[in-house]
Every structure is written in structure tokens, then in C-alpha cells.
Design brief:
Number of strands: 12
CATH architecture of the largest domain: 2-Layer Sandwich
CATH topology of the largest domain: Heat Shock Protein 90
Strand order of the largest sheet: 2-1-5-4-3
Number of helices: 10
Radius of gyration: 25 Å
Order of helices and strands: HEEHHHEEEHHEHEEHEEHHEE
Structural class: alpha+beta
CATH superfamily of the largest domain: Histidine kinase-like ATPase, C-terminal domain
CATH class of the largest domain: Alpha Beta
């Protein structure tokens, strides 16, 4: 790497770290925060640079100025382990390491490194989820064979009905049946050849989400509200339209079934930086959250919901989430889930290819 400015080079190195790094001067004012720190605390450097440590709400409960004073006076580093930071939407567990920065053996600043322990657990969970998919794909290939024949019959019946109908309004419904049958037929064909990569093209992810929202809103009771919180600055995603529609549709349908006759679903998009999926680190990724206020997923099922045939509903097949995970995996992404009563969140991570950062 050629860079004539060592300061710029060092800053780029810090911005590529996955741990948050903050630097405070001798007056305990924040003079630097890296990208990982901005992402962890959901703030921008412009908002908080120059603030006193005790003024930073995310460090309020940690007596940070006392620890900074100890480091700057004694010139020694120390670590505080397993601290809980109350950050929305939930608390995280971290290790704090505070190190003096010396000039001529005199401390002139303190460097705070924050290691998020939950992130290591997340990577371990990701590896488990990816392993689940190896087993799921084998089952899905067998099921795909069984689906093809009835799917063809469904389309043929809709085509015959379309010829008999006179009212254009009624024919719109048969057209939807045929279009969805064609899309599912294409999807099944690709399940039978899992090594074939998705047919990717640049996509506006919000158009995909709007198609899904409209389909589910038609199916759900009128008292089920589906809201949107889209980040309009998201770049195009390189993906397969049919596969993404199917995967997201499965998750949003699950959310609608979870809330029952009355409830609230939120579809939210954001950009995330330095996202690790499996063993691969991605500079940028799109994160799609599907949040519902249903009763939540039973704790004993939460670690198994992406396995095929695992379901919490008596009438469920246990295939929707497994298929969704498999299709997102084919895009280099991952689906994660956290759940508590009144707040179930399915998070879809789709890495952005080089050129967006």
C-alpha cells in the first residue's frame, strides 16, 4: 500500500478495525473515534468530537473520566472486563482497555479500545447457521422435485380459468396466480441445481420490499399494520430478484402470522459497515430488519428455527425460514433472529460488492 501521509494511513488502519477505538486528551475530551466506534454507538464523529467523556451518554454509567484520570496520572494501561453498555435496542457486553499515549515518557492522551464480546458470539452463531444450511439444502432438493408437478397443475388451471373469465378485474387475479406460479417454478428449478449462482443484476432493494409488503398486506387482516422505515441513501444491491422476493416474503409472512388478527410489523433498512458474515469481512452491507410485536419465539426453538421442519405453529411446514436462509446464503448474506415477547427481529444482511465504499 502506497501512502505518503502516515497520519492518513494510520487513520485508515484504525477505521478497518472491528473494535471501537476512542482517543481522549488530557482534559478528557474526545479527539478521535474510528468507524467501528461510530457504528457501535450509532453516532457520527462530527456530533461528539470535543465532548467531555462524562457527557457521552453511552459511557455515562462507566465512570470513564475516573478511569481516564487514573491512566493519565499513572501512565499505565488497564482492562475492565464484561461491562454492560445499555445501547438501543439492547445491552451489549464489552471489554474496555485504556492505554496511555506517551510523548517523551509523559502521557498526552488516552486510547480506549472497546471489544464487543457479543460480536464473537454472533460469529459463532453465524457458523452454526451456515452449517444448518448444508443439511437443509439436501432436504430442499428432494422437496423441490415433489413441488414441480402440483405447481404446473396450478398454473394450468389458472390459465384455463383466465380464458373463461370476461371481467378484466377478475382476470387480474388469475394473472397474479400465473405470475407467482412462474416465479415459483423458476425458483424450484434453481433449487434443483444449488451450485448454480443466482441470476444477479443491480436491484433497488426497496422495490423488492414494496412488492413483498403489498403481497402480505393483501393476505393479512386489515388491523395488521405494516410500516416502512427505509434509508433512501442505500445503493443498488446486486442480487436475484425472484430469490430475494421469496426469502423476504417468507419472513414477513411469518411475522404477519405471528401477530395474528391485530399487530404491527416494521420493515427497516440501514447500511452497516465492517460486517463479518461467517469468515468473510465485508466493508459494507445492507441490513433489513423485519420487526413484529407478536408473542415471540419460544427460547427452546430460537436456536433451531432455520432448520427445515422446525415450526412453532400447528399448521406450519417449517420450511419458510430454512428456504429464506438458503437463498440469502446464496447472495453471500445471512439471516439472524432475536426474539422476546412483543419484539421479534429478523435481520437480513446482504453484503455490497466492491465499488460501493
Amino acid at each position: 500500500m502506497n501512502n505518503s501521509d502516515p497520519v492518513s494511513l494510520h487513520q485508515r488502519i484504525l477505521d478497518y478495525l472491528t473494535d471501537a477505538v476512542l482517543v481522549f486528551d488530557t482534559a478528557y475530551r474526545l479527539v478521535y473515534i474510528n468507524v467501528a466506534g461510530e457504528m457501535l454507538f450509532a453516532v457520527s464523529a462530527r456530533q461528539i468530537l470535543g465532548a467531555r467523556a462524562k457527557e457521552l451518554s453511552f459511557l455515562h454509567d462507566q465512570n470513564i473520566e475516573r478511569d481516564l484520570k487514573r491512566t493519565l496520572q499513572q501512565g499505565e494501561s488497564f482492562t475492565k472486563r464484561n461491562l454492560s453498555l445499555g445501547l438501543p435496542p439492547q445491552s451489549i457486553t464489552v471489554n474496555f482497555t485504556i492505554t496511555p499515549m506517551l510523548e517523551q515518557d509523559k502521557p498526552v492522551a488516552a486510547l480506549v479500545q472497546i471489544e464487543q464480546l457479543d460480536r464473537h458470539l454472533r460469529i459463532s452463531m453465524e457458523e452454526q447457521l451456515l452449517a444448518q444450511q448444508n443439511a437443509a439444502r439436501m432436504l430442499l432438493r428432494g422437496l423441490a422435485h415433489e413441488i414441480k408437478n402440483p405447481l404446473g397443475g396450478l398454473r394450468g388451471a389458472a390459465q384455463l380459468l383466465d380464458r373463461e373469465l370476461v371481467e378484466e378485474e377478475m382476470r387480474e387475479y388469475t394473472k397474479i396466480i400465473m405470475e407467482e406460479s412462474d416465479r415459483l417454478q423458476s425458483l424450484v428449478d434453481r433449487m434443483l441445481a444449488p451450485n448454480k449462482p443466482p441470476r444477479k443484476s443491480p436491484l433497488n432493494i426497496h422495490r423488492i420490499l414494496e412488492r413483498v409488503r403489498q403481497l402480505v398486506q393483501v393476505e393479512a387482516p386489515p388491523s395488521v399494520i405494516i410500516e416502512r422505515d427505509y434509508d433512501p441513501s442505500l445503493p443498488l444491491v446486486n442480487g436475484d430478484s425472484d430469490q430475494l422476493i421469496q426469502s423476504i416474503l417468507n419472513i414477513v409472512r411469518n411475522a404477519a402470522q405471528a401477530v395474528g388478527q391485530k399487530g404491527h410489523i416494521l420493515i427497516r433498512t440501514r447500511i452497516h459497515r465492517q460486517v463479518t458474515i461467517g469468515h468473510r469481512r465485508n466493508p459494507m452491507a445492507v441490513k433489513i430488519d423485519i420487526i413484529d410485536d407478536g408473542p415471540g419465539i419460544k427460547p427452546e426453538l430460537l436456536g433451531q428455527i432455520f432448520y427445515p421442519m422446525v415450526t412453532g405453529r400447528a399448521d406450519g411446514t417449517g420450511l419458510g425460514l430454512s428456504i429464506a436462509q438458503s437463498l440469502i446464503n446464496q447472495h453471500g448474506g445471512l439471516v439472524e433472529c432475536t426474539s422476546s415477547p412483543g419484539n421479534t427481529v429478523f435481520s437480513i444482511f446482504l453484503p455490497l460488492e466492491k465499488g460501493h465504499d
